[in-house]
Amino acid sequence: VEVGSVVEFYGAFATGKTQLCHQLCVNVQLPRARGGLEAKAAYVDADGSFRPERAKEMAEALGLDPSEALRNILVFKPSTVEEQMAAVEEVKRVAERVKLLAVDTVISLFRAEYGEDVVARQWRLLLHLKQLEALAELGVAVVVANQVVVKPGVGELPAGGVALDAGLTKVRLSRHGGLWRAELEASPHLPEGEAFFRITGQGVRDP
Asked: What is the pTM of this model?
């Protein structure tokens, strides 16, 4: 995950999307010498999945003050597409201090609001993606968690269709017993590859 980029983590239920979003919101606060950016994070919680206690557990495991780390995560809880997009505009205004934005999940409110009106949904989703790309250009790392849809004969695909296809770094998540797999499927400048990780009480860790 790099500043200036938009990364999509997609996968089925319980494949680690929300855990990775929490972990990244904590890691960005670390000193640069430890791989962080000494910055704040923002979490757009469109699914009601943000867990303050989980963020504090992860922070404490990394030697950060848990309460301070939680204060350094700006949490937005939109209930409409309009509110979700307004949250991103708010992050733009504080982009000098916020260096990571997590949107979990990016598609859920669009699905709820637009239902079967696929054309309108795709158009609005494309506008949202352009908005996220503009934020990334301000030097913010943008991470979006996405659901999957199943197509007969094809298998699992990220929800959102062509609106979310252009220019994103795409990482597919899956679970294999006690390990989770992250597979880089598409990137503007990185080769395809994969990595495995564990999810423990302390957070996301190498296997």
From this structure: 0.94
